[in-house]
Amino acid sequence: MYVESAQNIKKISVNAPGALNVIKQSLVGPAQGWEGWVMRLFTVAPGGQTPRHSHSWPHINYIVSGEGTVYLNGREQNVQPGYSAYVPGGAEHQFINRGQQDFVFICIVPEEGDV
Questions:
Q1: Which stretches are transmembrane (predicted)?
Q2: CB of 26 closer than 8 Å to CB of 9
Q3: At a CB cut-off of 8 Å and minimum separation 6, what does 113 contact?
């Protein structure tokens, strides 16, 4: 069994080109016994964004708090807590904080996607 508070998990600044004010935490993955997958928590500060990018693996997202926009293959969708999103492999995507508070979402990817 593995149980831990997100407050105790290392926060890593996302420094990829196009990223602005994004923190990543790897909550559960192979190191905790979940082979092949990783559940991450992203916190995007007001005015921040993830890079607009694509990759071969899919990911599943769940919005925890704040308000933002999910860009997916040329379309934008406003999201808020309780929304989920599926990004297929190869799709161009981006998460943008459009609100006044942190935009926080869970992102589950195959292990190779936790870079």
A1: none
A2: yes
A3: 38, 55, 57, 59
Question: CB-based contacts of 45: which residues, under 8 Å, 6+ apart?
Answer: 21, 22, 23, 97, 102
Taking the C-alpha atoms of residue 65 and residue 74, their distance in angstroms, rounded to an integer, is 24
Cβ neighbours of 35 (radius 10 Å): 8
70-87: per-residue pLDDT in tens?
999 999 999 999 999 999
Give Cα 28 to chain centroid, integer Å. 13
Q: Model pTM greater than 0.85?
A: yes
- CB-CB contact of 45 with 97 (8 Å): yes
Residue 101 CB neighbour total at 10 angstroms: 11
- Token pair for 46: 């007001």
Residue 10, SS3? coil
